[in-house]
Amino acid sequence: MADAWADFRLPLAPAAAPPSDPWAEFRAPAASPAAAAEQASPSMPPTTGRPAEPQQPLGDAWGAKGEFLNGATFGLVDELGAALFTPIEMGIQAYQGEPLSISAGYDTALGRQREAQDAYRKDHPVEATAAGLAGGLFTGAGAAPKILSSGASLGTNIVRGTIAGGAGGAAAGFGEGRGMQDRVEDAILGGGIGAGLGAVAPLAGAAVGAGIRRIGAGRAARETLEPVGIGRRTADQIGRELDRDALSPEAARTRLDAMGPDAMLLDAGDNLAGGAEAVANAPGAGNRTIRERLAARNAGASQRITEAADAAIGPARDMTETADDLIARRGRESGPLYAQALEKPIGWNDRMQAFMDDPITKGGLRKGLEIQRLEALARNERFDPVDYNITDFNVAGDPIITGTPNMRTLNVIKKGLDNIVEGYRDPTTGRLQLDEYGRAVNEVQRAFIKEIDGLNPAYAAARAAWAGPTRVRDALALGQDVFDRSVRPDQLRQRLAAMGDDERQAFQMGARDQLSEIMGTARRDAGAARAAFETGWNREKLGLLLGDDEAAGRFLDTLGTETRFANRSNAITGNSATARRQERVGEYNGQRGAARGALDPASGLWGDTKRTIARGVDAILDGRAARSAEQMRGEFGDAVSRQSAQRDELIDAIMGYGRGREAAAQRAIPKEELMRAIMSGGALAVSGSTRRGPNG
Questions:
Q1: Cα torsion at 168, 172, 174, 177 (round to 10°)?
Q2: Which of 163, 287, 512, 595 is least crowded, fewest Cβ atoms below 10 Å from its Cβ?
Q3: What pLDDT does 610 receive?
Q4: What is the pLDDT of residues 119-160, one digit of tens each?
Q5: What single-letter DSSP state applies at residue 425?
Q6: How far is the C-alpha of 38 from the C-alpha of 666, rounded, in Å?
Q7: Which residue has better confidence, 174 or 667?
Q8: C-alpha to C-alpha distance for 170 and 671, rounded to whole angstroms
Q9: CA distance 377 to 631
Q10: Residue 680 half-sphere exposure, CB side, CA atoms within 13 Å?
Q11: Is the whole model's pTM more than 0.85, yes or no?
Q12: Contact status, residue 673 vs residue 205, Cβ threshold 8 Å
């Protein structure tokens, strides 16, 4: 019967005698006997009614694309193709009047697929193998990123790669097999090869990534670290100490900027200081560098504290000379204002009369008039008691006032009262030492002046410009007592609000003198000085003295910084050999005895042999480690003790080095993933090719 499907079938190769195969009964038949006999009949006439055309070689129908798809589908493309053509074979069965059979149709289609596959592999063995490998590589490489993760550990990826490679290799081997026995054997072989290559894939990717990172880190070191005089090992050690202190280089720089130009990198954190301590107590140039620079910084502490105090409140001066100069200068400058105020008439009242009737006021008038007479004599000026409405003196020598006292009279009374109060001033300390009577006189003086100011505003304005020697010295003494416990912030605030310019200036002088006393302690112990300012109300009073809390904060920050500097220096260069220091010294001395640690000696002859070998290896390794460690300590000691611009340049270099390493790490990720993908695809491809060949 004519074959209507002849044009659509894959041509059959000439039948060959089957080889002896003990597993033949377990294999699926290549094609049904009826179909084979019909296809082999030489008398079958053409069905198309036109001359027969030359047929293409049998293997070309399969081609490289078939091998590529076969490798990409774990060797199952022939089975998949047979399933696709089974309906066509069943149609041929129906056309030829044969019983319909799905299995027979599938077996016939599968036989045609495999005959074409075998023919291509026989005619083109190299191309077939390459195409199959490419197909396996395509599938394996596509699956690798989903199986092997850049974020997972190397061990995790090795386990994943082994499992996935074994599974893929077993599937590919099973797909390539012919018959159940072959499939099982090839699955076992392919699974083993796939598992081995799958385990290697993460290692190969890690090796590629490590190489790229190392090259990138080396380039970054040459570009950033060499100009500032440190190597990669030193930069890495500084980076580890920063990580232990939970600091980025940027954060460390911000912290050091707040401490000022004298801060060193070793001040940024305890672990950096611990590294410096280890270097300062190990032999080499690093030891000398750290100790010399810390000693130089300690020597400058007194000057830095003095400069901070000068910036906050002005330079220290001789109190006696400064107060006298201020009194003389302000007296001259306020002369015109007093002259105008003393010419003003005054409205008399009962309160002023009560003052005039009291003996202390009369005593003040007598003393003040005497002072005025002497001053006039010294200046060669005219003095006439009548100008003060004084027309006579009684037997005791007290002035007799005719009529209502004028402003000149009241002003000389003030001078006299000032003089009485001044009698209580300690000539050594400059402070008033008032007894109960003295405090009473002082209160009368203030009340008297307040009453005059109310009656004559011009006099109040003149006094604001120049309060007189007593008030100036009072303000000076208040400044010297400002940090005394008896001075409350609210009282100080009221006194400052009532002060004139000359009094405030005197107060600042006295406070600066008191500050100098405390600074004498600060030069020896900045921490104790800072504690003194933080005690009780002193922080608030310091704010009043300096103008605001922010200024006080800046000054206290300076003392705090000097305290940290001193404590850090003592910890690093002190003689206390703590366990922490011993541990760090070991870290900075380099690893010793690595071979002996790696070769766990056993007993007997073999143990002695290993110990001998280990000692020889360690003699070489320890020498190299010691030289490398000493170089690193020298660079580390120099790096962490730099100051000012050199310190900032170093931190900039470390940040640049970190950016370079990060960029190299980012570049390594896709290369590492690509290598893992190639190796994973290769595992699948090689596993599937174990039986690939003309008879595979």
A1: -170
A2: 163
A3: 55
A4: 877 877 877 777 766 776 666 656 555 555 555 666 666 666
A5: B
A6: 65
A7: 667
A8: 28
A9: 83
A10: 31
A11: no
A12: yes
Whole-angstrom distance, CA of residue 573 vs CA of residue 244: 21
Measured CA to CA, the distance from residue 88 to residue 70 in angstroms comes to 22
Region for 255 from its dihedrals, namely left if φ exceeds 0, alpha if ψ lies in -120 to 50, beta otherwise = alpha
Phi, psi of 32 (to 5 degrees): -70, 150
Angle, helices 538-546 vs 301-313, to 10°: value is 60
Supply the pLDDT for residue 117. 72
HEC letters along 229-255: CCCHHHHHHHHHHHHHCCCCHHHHHHH
Decide: residue 426, CB within 10 A, 0-12 exposed, 13-18 middle, 19+ buried: exposed
Q: How far apart are CA 454 and CA 463, in angstroms?
A: 12
Amino acid 450 reads K
For residues 164 and 342, which has the higher predicted lDDT (pLDDT)? 342
Question: How far apart are the C-alpha atoms of 291 and 285, rounded to whole Å?
Answer: 10
CA–CA separation, 344 and 468 (whole Å)? 19
Q: Above 70 in pLDDT, residue 688?
A: no
Helix (H, G, I), strand (E, B) or coil at 432: strand
Burial letters 560-597, b for 16+ CB under 10 A, else e: bbbbebbebbebbbeeeeeeebeebbeebbbeeeebbe
Average pLDDT, the chain: 75
Dihedral sign, Cα of residue 571, residue 577, residue 579, residue 580: positive
pLDDT bucket at 75, cuts 50 / 70 / 90 = low
- Cα separation of the two ends of the chain: 35
Determine contact, residues 506/326, Cβ cutoff 8 Å.
yes
- If DSSP codes are grouped into helix, strand and coil, which group holds residue 391? strand
Own/partner contacts of 72-77, CB < 8 Å, gap of 24 or more, are: 72/135, 72/136, 72/138, 72/139, 73/135, 73/139, 73/175, 74/139, 74/168, 74/171, 74/172, 74/174, 74/175, 74/684, 74/688, 75/172, 75/173, 75/174, 75/175, 75/176, 75/177, 75/688, 76/175
Cα separation of 640 and 247, whole Å?
Answer: 15
State yes or no: pLDDT of 369 exceeds 90: yes
Distance (Å) of CA 230 to CA 225, 587, 619: 6, 18, 27
pLDDT given at position 62: 62
Cβ-based burial of 248 (10 A; exposed 0-12, middle 13-18, buried ≥19):
middle
